[in-house]
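Why does this matter for the project? Reviewers at the last site visit asked to see concrete outputs rather than summary tables. In response, this paragraph embeds two records directly. Each consists of the residue sequence and, immediately after it, the corresponding structure tokens. Nothing has been edited or filtered.
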Amino acid sequence: LSLYFKDKRSLTRTLACIFLIIMATLCKETALAVLGVMVVFDLLRTKSFASSAPHIIVITICAAVFMKFRLWIQRDMPYFDANENPASHATEPLTRTLSYGYYHVLHARQLLLPLCLCADFSGTSVPLLESIYDARVLGIVSLYCSVCLLLFTVTRHTGRLYGMTCCSLLLLPFLPSSNIFFPVGFVVAERVLYLSSAGFAMLLAWALLKWFDSKVSYVLLGVVVLVYSSKSFTRAAEWNDEISLWTSTVECNPRSALA
């Protein structure tokens, strides 16, 4: 992205960025969402669609070809049983929709407030939402309203190019794991938030520097970095061996099917 965000951009640089993204996608499919971030950046940076159309067309064609190639390699769409993704096997559309929405809330909580990180949320770890009167629906409404408010605030700000780029890096990489387009094989997974965490970090730093005095901003940024770094350090220690990993899983989620 830093290569693509240069002031002077050429088709060669665009193709180089696409190549790097495809290489990253071979390691983890969510990297393909960065192509969407490039498209958003092009649309916001230029005043007319015509000037950015060549780059967007190239990005779209390359993304379509690679996705076709990826599906050809896999042959068939994967099947996930009810233990891996219970909501996808719910018979009632309302239950499925509400449960998917609550999965989004859990991912947002993992990103914003990672106090309880868990390696397994399968099975009955997260009960399905079967009614709109479930108290957890308030969390779903709050999340979606917060996202809309964030986008509205950023688009009205003077630095909307950087802000919207951060928002796209925050939201777009999560879409393939959101169960919106197709069911996935997990309820909550930390690994799908790697790119989103980069967008969150950039957006948080931008907001602090814009809304607070420079000295206050640096102090707050320092505190945030210290807190999140300490959590990363302790979480990495939990992955040292299976005993420590599953012990932490039971402490965080006693209903875990695997632990």
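We now turn to the second protein, recorded in exactly the same manner.
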Amino acid sequence: RVYAELHTSARGGLDPNAVAATAANYEMDGEALIAKAYDVPMSVRLLCTAIEGQDGGDALRDAAAELCGKFVDVLPPGFRTYRNPPRSYHSTVFHTGHPSELRPKTKAQVEEELLVCKRLVGATSAMRVEVHRVVLASSGVLLVLLNEQGNGVSPVDGLRLRCRRAFPTAPRKQATFVMHVSLCRVATAPAVDHDQWRAVLNHVDDLSSKIQGMQATLRTIWHVQEPRVAICGDVRGGCVVTPLACRTTN
């Protein structure tokens, strides 16, 4: 149901308030958008599934990056987007510090947090995922929606529950139910007519069909210290990324 709602959410156009909120997170550096830094250092941290690996992860990442480029190329004149670097592609699992609920920690406290996260991830099975579809949400975010394969409790949901128990003072706002990868965000969206917008959405559906059904087994979860808004996994942007390995046997 959530995925179906996301798929149709932009049919009537993008939400101007959401696009404006996205734009407020960036500053201009020439022609480039630069994410703003958080006011409090070391206050936003999270665990996220890395879209990488030899068991289909690298192929999925590369296909999604190619798709994102084609999407940006067909946007009407005047649209401006912030594209996430492909090597930062991820799916959020759990925030120990959230942009809306900052949790600053000292370097020593972050090291302690890392030890807990390493133990939690080490008890988590690899994630077998399949691309459900690609959607443009009304917020202006281009998303790859993933389904987990297999029976029983999903590794991601199980890890989220164990993180909640391990970090009882973590932010209340957390990712739930949806496993998605954010490819880019629309930060400027001029008014367009119905036919132009319909052409954009049809193109998204066409691009989606190219990677729908792609499968990957993801074996790495990152612990990320995020210094700027919504750049998780972007090492060049200043993120501190610590790869943590899932358990090798189920």
